[in-house]
Structure formats: C-alpha cells, structure tokens
Amino acid sequence: MKQPSQHQTLSPTLPLGAQALDQDRVFVRALENFVRYLKYEKFRSPHTIAAYQQDITAFMAFALRQGARELEEIDITMVRSWLASQHAHNASRNSLARHSSSLRVFFAWAEEDGLITANPTLILANPKREKHLPEVLNEQQIQQLIDQVSQQIAHDPNDAKNLRLLAVIEILYSSGIRISELTQLDLSSINRSENTFRVIGKGNKERVVPLGKPALRALSQWVTRGRPQWFKNNPQGRVEPALFIGPRGRRANSRQIREDLTRALHSIENTEASGAHVFRHSAATHLVDGGADIRTVQELLGHSSLATTQIYTHVSVERLTNTYNKAHPRA
Predict the structure, then answer these.
(1) Closest by alpha carbon to 308, among 318, 298, 299, 296?
(2) Measuring CA to CA, which residue among 95, 103, 93, 148 is closest to residue 124?
(3) What is the DSSP letter of 242?
(4) What sequence ranges are listed for the domain Tyr recombinase (predicted)?
C-alpha cells in the first residue's frame, strides 16, 4: 500500500451531528484507515470519498448510541436498524442503496484488514434504486445557450467570465466529460494536432477524448484572451498548469463552474435543468440519436459498465416516442 507523506492530512472531517465519534478512538481510527484505503489503494475521487465518509460516520454514530464500542460488536440487526431509521426519516431508495453499498465496502475492507472476523453485511439485501431517466437538453436548447453566451462575448470580447463559460459549455457538450474531470484538465492535457485531450476519470483511469472544432475555437479564445486576465491575479505568483482557472488565478473548482452553468441554463426555455451533468447526458443522448455505437459512447464517457451507458438508449426511445405522439395524427 502506498503510504502518504507525513505532511499530508488524512484525518476525515466528521459530518455535523456525528461528534459522538470523537469519544471513540476505535471507530475514528477505523474510519481514518478506511479513507487511506479509498484514496491510496482504490484511487477514489474526493467526492466519492466524502460520500463514503458521510455514510460510515453516520452509521458509526448510530452504533455508538446502540452501545457498540468495537467493530466486532456490530451485527446485521444493527445494520438493518440503522437503514430502517434512515427510511423512517424519508431517505429515498437511492439514498438507502448508497448507504447499503457504503456499508458493504467498509465491512468488506474491515474483514480483509483483520478488524473483524465476520462481515455483517454479507446477507444484507440491496434496496432497488429508483429509475429516473436523466434530463436532456435538445439540440435547439444547446444552440440557444451557446448563442446567448456568444452574444455577450460579442458585446464584450474580453469578458473573461463569459469566455470561460463558453469554453466550458462547448467542451462539456462536445466530449461528455464529468465536471470533476474538466476542472482537473491542464494546459498540457490538450493535443491540438489531433483535436483530442487526456482525461483522468474515476479510479484514476486515463482516456483520450476527441474535441469538436467549435469547442477548440472556444477553448482558444479562453486561453488567449480570458485566462491571461485571471492568471496574473495568482497571489503566489506561481505557474498554474490548470486549463480552467478562477478570478484569483488558481484552478477553478467544480462549484464555481456549476453555479455559472446553472445561471446560464435558467435563461433557456422549457427546461428546469441545472448544473453541469445535463451536458454529459445531452452529449451521450445525441450521440446515440445520431447512430453512435453504444460501446463507443461507453468509452467516451468512461463508464466501467455498459449497463450504465445503456440508459441513454432508453432516453432516446422515450424522446422518439414523445415526438411520435405529438406529431403523428393517429398516434
């Protein structure tokens, strides 16, 4: 196992309401070691690690209230009781499925690490997730959004915020990458000669993704006219390799980008979409609509399972059915 340096802080920040864990070093140490495992052996993203921490911390706090002081004292009854309590507090089926998954991963790790002799979650039934088709923008809505931002840039060609916004929209829609992948891009990630860029996805897996010409044009405008305005604001005066930076000259974070996208999306008619993921859904759906092979779409999106990608075939069928019902006189 790759050990962190002594300068790295690994102690997890406990979610609010779980301060009871501070009183039990056994559980805290287990959680800290589990976080190390997720980060250095499984290469999970910060977002995924935070979700695991939240679930396991909440469960441990519950176990403490039930009188458990050792991991070995936790059994399937206690696990089911906690899940039942979450259900009683109106947790959705998707949330319960995530909680169950977190507990399975944690206790499988604990058993393998020798912290427990038997995994209490082996016979835990997995709640079925609710199936919701993702929201998708149609091609006209995408174009409307791009036109609006482009008009604002035409009015002020050196508006760094809009130059970044246009580049972000074009790249997200052109490639279907995740917002977390976009903010981790560096200037060196782009291969202009081949119109591609390298993405580091979930599980630290690298893939090469093509970029369309409009995305490359928007990106060039950002790099040449927008980025230099903010780059000089870096308080440390250091070279920032990030492709997308914020007004202070540092790497942009996902929250900043997501908020800008949501504000822009609110101006689009007939949609309640927000955030960045709608561009990933839209890109995948339009690829399938255009006849792209489902396995090619899987590779582009970085899905480990084909089943995850196949949701977009369902979206396309639903869109086709809705169009038929609206347009055909005998539908």
Answers:
(1) 298
(2) 103
(3) B
(4) 132-325
* Chunked mean pLDDT (size 10), the chain, 331 residues: 39 43 75 92 86 94 92 94 91 88 95 94 79 79 95 95 97 92 94 90 85 94 95 76 93 92 90 89 88 84 78 64 62 51
User: Tokens 């090469």 correspond to what residue?
Assistant: 208
Pairing of strands 190-191, 196-200: antiparallel
Distance (Å, whole) CA 178 – CA 172: 7
Q: What is the pLDDT of residues 103-141, one digit of tens each?
A: 999 999 999 999 999 999 998 887 776 666 678 899 999
Rounded Cα–Cα distance for residues 327 and 314 (Å): 20
Residue 255 neighbours by CB distance under 10 Å = 10
Question: For 234, phi and psi rounded to 5 degrees?
Answer: -60, 115
Query: The pTM is what?
Result: 0.64
SS (HEC) of 165-191: HHHHHHHHHHHCCCHHHHHCCEHHHEE
Name the amino acid, one letter, at 194: E
Known catalytic residues are: 178, 202, 277, 280, 303, 312
| Alpha helices (H) along the chain | 25-36, 46-65, 76-88, 93-112, 139-155, 160-175, 179-183, 213-221, 227-231, 254-265, 277-289, 294-301, 306-309, 311-327
3-state secondary structure of 80: helix
Residue in 179, 213, 175 with CA at minimum distance from that of residue 197: 175
Cβ distance 184 to 244 under 8 Å?
no
